[in-house]
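Researcher: Here's a chain I'd like modeled. Treat it as a single chain, no partners, no ligands.
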Amino acid sequence: MQEQNPIVLMNFSGIYREEEFWKNRQVSWIELQDVCGTNCYCDEEAIAEINKRTENYPTVGIHFIDSGNYHYMTRIWLEKISEPFELLVFDNHTDMQPPAFGGLLSCGGWIYDSIMELPLLKKVILIGPDEEAFSRVEPEFKEKVEFLSRERLLEMEETEVSAFVKNQVGEYPLYISIDKDVLCETDADTNWSQGDMRLSTMLECLGAVKEKCAERISRILGVDICGECDVTEPGNSALNDMANAALLEFFT
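Model: Modeled as a single isolated chain. Structure tokens:
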């Protein structure tokens, strides 16, 4: 991805005002704090308003989408892709829960919805949830997912993890979605339960992905990053600021 690609900050909660990673960059700020019906679940009216406010922004670029409560934004960005693609997700949760309420897009079910509703999505590579959580995913959905569990991550060396990820990508153009809750508590502080991955491991994986895409003359279609802490609760946003800065530096 090149420097001219847009850096988009989606302001759902106001948390980015506490961070510095974006302040010496040319960024697009999408204001969403005034949109009702967006926290964890997104109703049809809110989706329509978000679509209106993002209609002039391409999938290409780096999208910072606030806390994990808004991870469903990935599903909305994926809607813009008009060619077959793969999806690489780093997350401490599967985000593959069937919808509890009809018509509501949720932070816990957006991958499920994407597999159900986006025929151009050919494969999901999911890195980070524990094996017990993935065991609850409906069998027909598992067929479209390459999965690396939290337990396996603890057993593997960084080079083994990056080799696994590199081996899974490259057949189609790739969209990358990162929830920092997959990271250990020394590298991020999020408002959801966290995993054990080091930021250095994630960056090594992403380097392997970029290398594979270059080998296969493939493309990274876009990236989004979430996992900020709750602006209303005590949290170490400085940790997230550093992680966001490292990821932004990598992708630009």
